[in-house]
Recover the amino acids of this structure.
């Protein structure tokens, strides 16, 4: 146990953030870490409770409780408290291939199930994780070297998002020769071209990719499997194939006026922005700009929040974020007890920034979009919305019902659709003669030697799940290659 009285002596303290009005002037990360002593005190708050849920990674009521990677949280909290930073890093890296990503972007279901969280603010697990791994990078023991021996087996990993990267990392560690194929010009999947710079700096992604290359993993970018190289060629040239192509089909909003100019999918807006910043460092001039525009983001989730934050950095005139769901409770409801994921109001960085600039939280709840109207030249100018009430339907499920007379017309020259993803693309699956893998048990497919992982198997999810999927698919693939499956 870290410090028996730690949770009584120390209060939860998160790293500071640069003030919203200052940070929207640039694209840098905004977290200011605690001092090493301050972080050790946060480790001391871990009670090493008898039955810790923080590393359970189970689904309760359809939502994750505890860490999907089964990170050994109480163990490295104790090592952190004792100042054994290197040992803490080894413990952390045992289960998590890339803690520098999760330490920045994970919603931390571990904290939602922390026992201390029953009656006190939970342990700062995510910030502890980040502090441990960043010190490991500074001291030079975060990155694994090449494996001692090579097996002579070759594996092609298709897709370089967190699932593909984690899979490549573990297979390479077993000594297999791994090539990662990526259709984008830079690897990283949504780590590179989805999550914006201020949340996850691209230098952080590059640092890991360079380490992976140094460990012997090959990356073939700007290569779409199924177009630039056939899946058949990959199968012939490799002993196994792992598909980690993501869930890239965004959900559309098929209402009147959808084809007007100025209406984009969130992920296209975010990708164009990051690419422009990487291609022209310092300046960046995205082909989809929010500068001087009234921006309406449709979707109240994390991707929508990333759009709000990006629009603010472009210098938008106004921004609202529409959410069809009702205003969430501020505290856990009785039907959502610990250790379930707390379904409570969370105010994220983008909302904080919008409130600092425009004086109010940009989110508008219980609101559905009825139609878009243009200016006569094919460009969007208005979003017509209706207010909804959530009522129990015939099957006992809550459904939205329009409240008459509560319609609104909102000015908009840029609309960003952020309503989730429908799943992966079919082309590659068809070429390989595979069924849609979403929801299938296990990581193998109908064809021997072909595996699938990440959002492509699981459906739209989180980085932490993608890392777990990559790890488990690598294990299944290794067992197959070693003949122990
Ligand atoms: C804007 C945005 C923000 C997000 N923010 C967060 C967050 O803050 N925290 C969090 O936990 N999760 C976040 N997520 C979710 C998270 O990013 C995903 O769950 C995760 O990246 C899925 O990993 P993956 O490896 O399965 O797929 P992806 O990251 O989607 O990677 C798939 C890769 O496969 C490539 N590919 C596809 N087909 C082919 C082909 N035929 N040939 C070659 N390459 C191909 C694609 O180009 C892509 O690079 C966010 C998602 C989005 C869209
Ligand atoms: S990966 Fe996420 S859930 Fe797991 S310990 Fe880290 S912050 Fe918590």
């Amino acid at each position: 146990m870290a410090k028996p009285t730690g949770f009584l002596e120390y209060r939860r303290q998160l790293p500071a953030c640069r003030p919203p009005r200052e940070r929207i002037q640039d694209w840098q990360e905004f977290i200011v870490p605690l001092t090493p002593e301050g972080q050790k005190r946060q480790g001391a708050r871990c009670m090493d409770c008898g039955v810790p849920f923080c590393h359970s990674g189970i689904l309760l009521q359809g939502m994750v409780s505890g860490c999907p990677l089964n990170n050994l949280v109480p163990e490295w909290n104790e090592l952190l408290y004792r100042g054994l930073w290197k040992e803490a890093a080894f413990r952390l890296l045992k289960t998590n291939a890339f803690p520098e990503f999760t330490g920045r972007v994970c919603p931390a279901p571990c904290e939602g199930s922390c026992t201390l969280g029953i009656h006190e603010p939970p342990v700062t697990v995510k910030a502890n994780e980040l502090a441990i791994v960043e010190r490991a990078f500074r001291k030079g023991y975060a990155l694994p070297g090449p494996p001692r021996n090579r097996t002579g087996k070759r594996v092609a990993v298709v897709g370089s998002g967190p699932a593909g990267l984690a899979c490549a990392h573990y297979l390479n560690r077993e000594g297999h020769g791994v090539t990662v194929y990526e259709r984008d010009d830079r690897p990283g999947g949504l780590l590179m071209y989805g999550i914006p710079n201020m949340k996850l700096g691209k230098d952080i992604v590059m640092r890991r990719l360079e380490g992976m290359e140094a460990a012997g993993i090959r990356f073939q970018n700007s290569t779409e499997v199924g177009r630039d190289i056939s899946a058949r060629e990959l199968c012939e040239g490799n002993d196994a194939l792992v598909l980690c192509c993501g869930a890239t089909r965004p959900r559309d909003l098929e209402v009147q006026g959808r084809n007007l100019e100025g209406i984009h999918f969130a992920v296209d807006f975010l990708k164009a922005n990051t690419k422009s910043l990487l291609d022209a460092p310092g300046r960046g001039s995205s082909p989809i700009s929010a500068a001087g525009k009234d921006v309406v983001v449709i979707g109240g989730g994390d991707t929508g929040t990333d759009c709000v934050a990006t629009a603010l950095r472009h210098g938008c005139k106004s921004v609202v974020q529409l959410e069809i769901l009702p205003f969430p409770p501020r505290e856990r409801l009785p039907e959502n007890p610990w250790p379930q994921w707390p379904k409570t109001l969370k105010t994220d960085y983008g909302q904080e920034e919008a409130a600092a600039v425009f004086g109010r939280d940009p989110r508008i709840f219980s609101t559905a979009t009825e139609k878009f109207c243009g200016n006569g030249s094919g460009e969007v100018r208005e979003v017509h919305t209706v207010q909804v009430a959530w009522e129990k339907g015939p099957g006992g499920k809550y459904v939205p019902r329009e409240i008459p007379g509560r319609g609104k017309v909102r000015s908009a020259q840029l609309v960003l659709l952020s309503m989730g993803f429908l799943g992966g693309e079919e082309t590659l699956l068809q070429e390989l003669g595979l069924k849609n893998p979403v929801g299938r048990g296990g990581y193998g497919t109908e064809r021997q030697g072909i595996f699938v992982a990440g959002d492509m198997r699981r459906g739209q999810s989180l980085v932490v799940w993608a890392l777990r999927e990559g790890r488990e698919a690598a294990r299944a693939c290794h067992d197959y290659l070693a003949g122990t499956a």
